[in-house]
What we know:
The chain has a domain at 25-228. Helices cover 85% and strands 0% of the residues. It contains 19 helices and no strands. The protein is globular.
Amino acid sequence: MAGVASRVLGLVRDRILASQFGAGDTLDIYYAAFRIPDLLYNLLILGAMSAAFIPVFTSLISKEKKDEAWELASGILNLQTILLVAFSVVVACFAPVIMRFLTPGFPIEKMESVGIFTRIMLLSPILLGISAIYGGILVSLKKFLIYSLAPLMYNIGIIIGALFFVKFLGPIGLAWGVVLGAFLHMLIQYPAVKFSGFKFTLKLLHFAKNEDVKKVFYLMIPRTMAIAVTQINLLIITIFASTLKSGSLTVFNFANNIQSAPLGIFGISFAIAVFPMLSSCAAKNDEKEFSKIFSETFLKVLFFIIPISIFIFILRAQIVRVFLGSGKFDWEDTHLTVATLGFLIISLFAQSLIPLLTRSFYALQNTKIPFYVALVSETINILLVIMLIGKFSVQGLAIAFSVSSIANASILFFVLRLKHKLIEGGKILLGFFKISLAAVGAGVIIQMAKMAVANTMDIDTFVGIFMQFFLAGLLGSVVFVYLCFRLDIEELRHFQHSMTRKIFRAKNSISEDTGEISGI
């Protein structure tokens, strides 16, 4: 639920930004300024966490080597903080030169503003880097609640910046909101990590002697290279979008944020949750259980993502108008965002499977294959951007992004299946077909309901467009569940059982509560 709340709050954040600034220069500057801090975070932190730290830390914990595990956490925290501070200082010094490369199409004043925003926002990867270590520890210990609350706090910080800091500081308040969000992201996880037994030791060069730290470092190198290829994708988008008309970069980001909500809730969350189990199976050489867990999670992702993709595609205009269409976000901005979202959503299934597929390789301590595949898919992306941007403008970026994402997921799946033949390909194919059939059937009903509401209500008002979105989506959801039941889709039963367990667990906690906090 915390993950869902965070994604919903992210849409609220975007609505606030859209209504206050519209798709124009200010938000172009804001989103362009994210590129370098995000690059540092993804290269120096995300690679270490997903590919290296969690498997090694989990292995130590499973072997009851807690002292070594905490020493590893301290060593990685020391190493990454030194690297992040050093890189941030260098980038801050050379920000004007970097911005000329990153935003070649921006006017000089706009380019200078990106540099100022970037210098402030460089504080965020340092704070998020510390928070990522905390998050890696919590995930390894399977304490997901506090971990899932951290993104919620990050969005709250950005919203505070947009609503309050901007009033006193002007647009630069947006950058300080990002820093506040990063600080809150770190702060909320600290108590849980502290109570889990973590004790930080400041030994600046001790990590160089720690074999586990060295193992993490070596494992993260190929993963970091794979992420670097992916980050090039975002840099390419920023570079080319800067040459288009004002607001193009903002439009792409708004559309991407909308489709990223289900991606984060289902694709990334499922992959994160199952990663320790996959790592444990790999450590025990239990390939049969590894394949079983992978196949079940693969179908769970598809069970949610395929219908959501169809729902969003059919209702994309209503979604954009409901979540973004207010204040300075005018009709032209809406039209461009709807068109861009339509192309991005085509690859949502692939984007949602990539986290699971890559983490499956990482659990097997194979970080090279995802790098090579990312390199191929990014080459496809760049070639398509060059070919399409002249004719399709910002939609060309979305088309290239979708095609390269589908290529990435497809290659990863087939390589994984070739290397691990126990992957239940027949079961996955049958599940994919049945889920798709149910989703298409529900999509037909959504389209009919959308047209019916348009004929009975004034959809030029917020209430009308919201009711069209809500009623059509609700009816489609009911039909999808019914069709899944009729088609005997196994994932529906799993979802029902999961919800039933949670409900009864909650009831038991309430009934057994005699004044003490339940479960402690």
